[in-house]
Structure formats: structure tokens, C-alpha cells
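Is this the right way to post C-alpha cells for a design question? Let me know if I should format differently. Anyway, here goes:
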């Protein structure tokens, strides 16, 4: 199992403002920076509930038919958008990665700072270079 991230950070090292605002990013995401190629190579996306809630404010579901797993201590409380391939899952990082691996998923995109930190702390983050990302 390989887990990768693709993120922008401000000069002070934060992904979002304290209120989760992303208004410091260029409108429309700015330049493409290789994201389409990166996400096409990932089997699934794993994100925390807080990141998921932020994504829902974007309007349209940005992940198409890509499998998305939302980590939540209350999976039944996660409202999946219509047409999204999305599920909620509870468990430790190790348990979640094991379940996803058993499904044949080998490459995960980890979205969200806290989720990334938890996977890193659990020594589950595979170091794979994707260009200059």
C-alpha cells in the first residue's frame, strides 16, 4: 500500500486558515500543477470528516467516480452526495488501510492535514515521489 499527498501550503505551513477557509488559494485552483495526472494514478482517496465537509462546500463533487473513503467516528452521520462513489469508515489508520488493501487498493491519495498526520504517525505513509509535488 502506498499513500501519497498532493497539497498546497501557505508560507507558514498551513493548508487552510483556522476557520478552514481556503481563500488564500488562487480562484479556480490556479495552474493545474499535474493534479489530473496524479489523481488518475491513485486507486482511491482517503480523507477525514472535516476535509469532507469542506469539499461539500465546493458545489459540484470534484472526484467524479473515484472511490472516496471518509474517516469518521460516526460513519452513519456522513451524508454522501448523489452520484459520488463514497463511503464512511471508522477505525485506526492501520485498520482502515488494511480494509482498503484487502479490497485490492494499492495507491491511496490522502487528503487533509489531520488524516495525513495520523497515517504518518502510524508509519503507514509510503514515500513515493510524484514529480515535484
Amino acid at each position: 500500500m502506498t499513500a501519497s499527498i498532493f497539497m498546497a501550503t501557505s508560507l507558514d505551513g498551513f493548508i487552510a486558515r483556522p476557520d478552514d477557509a481556503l481563500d488564500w488559494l488562487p480562484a479556480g485552483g490556479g495552474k493545474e500543477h499535474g493534479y489530473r495526472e496524479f489523481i488518475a494514478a491513485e486507486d482511491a482517496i482517503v480523507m477525514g470528516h472535516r476535509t469532507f465537509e469542506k469539499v461539500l462546500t465546493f458545489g459540484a463533487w470534484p472526484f467524479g467516480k473515484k472511490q472516496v473513503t471518509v474517516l469518521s467516528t460516526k460513519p452513519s452521520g456522513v451524508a454522501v452526495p448523489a452520484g459520488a462513489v463514497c463511503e464512511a469508515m471508522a477505525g485506526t489508520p492501520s485498520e482502515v488501510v488494511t480494509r482498503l488493501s484487502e479490497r485490492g487498493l494499492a495507491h491511496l491519495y490522502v487528503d487533509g492535514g489531520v488524516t495525513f498526520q495520523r497515517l504518518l504517525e502510524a508509519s503507514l505513509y509510503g514515500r513515493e515521489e510524484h514529480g515535484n509535488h
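Format looks fine. Someone answered above. Worth noting: The radius of gyration is 14 Å. Helices lie at 35-40, 49-56, 93-102, 113-121.
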